[in-house]
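EI: anyone free to look at a 442-residue chain?
SC: sure, send it
EI:
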Amino acid sequence: MAKKRDQRSGTSSGRRENRIHSSSRQLERANSAPDGSKLVILFFFFFFVSSVIAVVVYRLRESSSSSSSSSSSSHKGSYVYSRGLVTADVNYRNVLSENSKASQNISQRHYTYPVLAYITPWNSHGYEMAKRFNSKFTHLSPVWYELKSEQTNLVLEGRHNVDRGWISDLKKAGEALILPRVVLEASPAELLKKKQRNKAINIIVTECKEMGYDGIVLESWSRWAAYGILHDPSIRNLALQFVKQLGETLHSTSSRRNNEQRLQLIYVIGPPSSERLQEHDFGPKDLETLSEAVDGFSLMTYDFSNPHNPGPNAPLKWIQFVLRLLLGNSGSRSKSLASKILLGINFYGNDFSLSRDSGGGGRAIIGRDYLALLEKHRPDLQWDKNSGEHFFFYADDRDIRHAVFYPSLKSISLRLEEARSWGCGISIWEIGQGLDYFFDLL
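SC: here you go
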């Protein structure tokens, strides 16, 4: 898709250049012709230019009208859009009075690409949101499991987190697939050997069959990077082989929900750590290698800033850069790979301390924390055009200045539009941390 943009840009530039040269030649011929001929040539020249301008203006208007129509149709029936709440010009009163409201028809989807929602066992609000807005999601991933090493054995921990009643309620409420997250904590030095690899895959697939899951979300790349193994080409290949074999095994296994449906694998990947890909980064070649074995890639495009470098959670330009870097300029192939990306959107925020004396600091905040800050400090919400995020400042009881970045309807809508422009799905971390009216955008 990026390649198509470049090609159009290049072609457009060439056409502009040709038109300039062509216009210059026509003016030269007009100046060298007899007076009567000059007038005729000039008339036709200006007629031609006027016609071209008219066509361009018409096409721009049509494009704008079509885009506006498409945008409005995707938001039809949305409470937050009908109330004019999706705007950069927002104040704390609007947030406090409107955040718990949503459209009456909560089953209507506005974002038609895949939507993966994470739920954490330590935040019960996420379980409630998963049931209430079930039809807004295509995939639900409760954060339940870890695969660990115990001497020479592999143990899958986490079944104690499972809420069977909740799973039953979800299946009655809608069709969202349930894919619990599994984090590979086992040492890769042993795990990636063929015998242990086969054993690990068998443990995971058996758990899916016994519990009636629709597949899993696997997180391992960040762990492998932490172990420092990905710079070795042979071990990196073994790591990729593990993911491929797991995906192929899941795809050969029928879902209990639907015998014709195969189990799915979604793989968690992080954004590159710098402008240039490092050895431990998950890059375009890795994406291509796993594209057939993986049903979706949960891309963690958040946590851009930290207490040592306070700022926005996920600047829009950074998100665009990450997508271009991953999907590259592979034309139609880029489009097919983009359809497997689940762009990460955070439903949490950060409260950063700006005091140099205290050494800085900060904490993650969720919806209820954000609302409490708004009620207490009644701040002026500011819009940062560069990052596409809202933020505000306040002073705490010790008179230390803070900067708070938390998602807004406007910031989320911009990221949904960016994902839509690429043909990507989205992944939300995590739905218990957001405000209720966020779901009206989905």
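EI: The chain has 15 helices and 15 strands.
SC: 👍
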